[in-house]
Design a protein that fits this description.
Layout (H helix, E strand, L loop, with lengths): L10 H13 L4 H8 L3 H12 L50 H10 L6 E2 L7 H12 L30 E2 L21
Parallel strand pairs: 1-2
The structure holds S-adenosylmethionine.
Length: 190
C-alpha cells in the first residue's frame, strides 16, 4: 500500500470504502489516487472479497448480440482485432481474460463441429461461451445443442478427464506474477 490520502479508523474501514467505490464503477486509477493505494492493493482486496479477480463489482450486461458483427476468420499468422469483442456475455471485467476473437478463431481453425474443446484455465469462461456459440451458429449442418461442462480441478493433473477424449485444447495460462487471480487457492498458478 502507498500513502493514504483519507484517514480511516481501521484498515477494514478503508477496504469497505474502496469496495463501495468499486460498486459504483469508479476506475481503479481514480480510487488509487483518492485513497492512496496502488493497483495491487485493490486487486488483492477484490480477489479476497469476491473470490475472483474482476474489475467491476456491479456486473450486469445487456446482451445486444450473440455473435460478432461482420466476423471474418483470421487468415494470416498475425491476428489483430479492432475491438476486444463484446458480443454475448463477453466483457473485459474479469482481469486477464482474452478477447473472444481468439478462441473463436482457434476453434474455427483447429476443430470441427461436434468435437470436444478443453480450456483447463477457464477463467470467466470465454472459451466455453464461444464453443457453444459456434455450435449454435452451425445449426443447419450440426443441429446438436452443446452445453459447456464446467469441472473444478487443478490443470496440473487432469485425471478427471478421460484419456484421448479431447480434440482441441484452447487455453490461456495464468500470467505468472502479473495478475493475482485467486487468493489462497491451493494450486493457483498466478
Ligand atoms: C489467463 S486466465 C484465463 C482467462 C480465460 N481465458 C478467460 O477468458 O476468462 C488463467 C486462469 O487460470 C486459473 N488458474 C490458475 N492456476 C490454475 C490451476 N492450477 N488449475 C486451473 N486453473 C488455474 C486462474 O484462476 C485464471 O482464472
Amino acid at each position: 500500500m502507498t500513502k493514504q490520502k483519507i484517514i480511516y479508523k481501521s484498515e477494514r474501514e478503508l477496504q469497505e470504502a474502496i469496495l463501495e467505490e468499486k460498486r459504483k464503477g469508479i476506475p481503479d486509477l481514480e480510487i488509487g489516487k483518492k485513497y492512496g493505494v496502488n493497483f495491487k492493493y485493490i486487486e488483492r482486496l477484490i480477489t479476497r472479497s469476491q473470490g475472483l479477480n474482476i474489475s467491476n463489482l456491479k456486473i450486469y450486461k445487456k446482451i445486444n448480440s450473440l455473435y460478432p458483427k461482420d466476423f471474418r476468420e483470421e487468415k494470416t499468422t498475425v491476428w489483430s482485432f479492432k475491438q476486444r469483442g463484446n458480443w454475448a456475455t463477453h466483457s473485459g471485467e474479469y482481469r486477464g481474460n482474452w478477447s473472444p476473437y481468439i478462441p473463436r478463431n482457434v476453434i474455427l481453425k483447429y476443430s470441427k463441429p461436434g468435437e470436444l474443446v478443453l480450456d483447463y484455465f477457464c477463467g470467466a469462461g470465454t472459451t466455453a461461451v464461444e464453443s457453444q456459440q459456434l455450435t449454435f451458429n452451425d445449426e443447419e449442418t450440426h443441429p446438436q445443442i452443446y452445453e459447456p461442462q464446467v469441472l473444478i480441478s487443478d490443470a496440473r493433473d487432469l485425471y478427471i478427464i478421460e484419456d484421448n477424449s479431447i480434440d482441441l485444447i484452447c487455453a490461456l495460462p495464468p500470467n505468472a506474477g502479473i495478475i493475482n487471480y485467486s487468493s489462497k487457492v491451493e494450486g493457483g498458478l498466478s
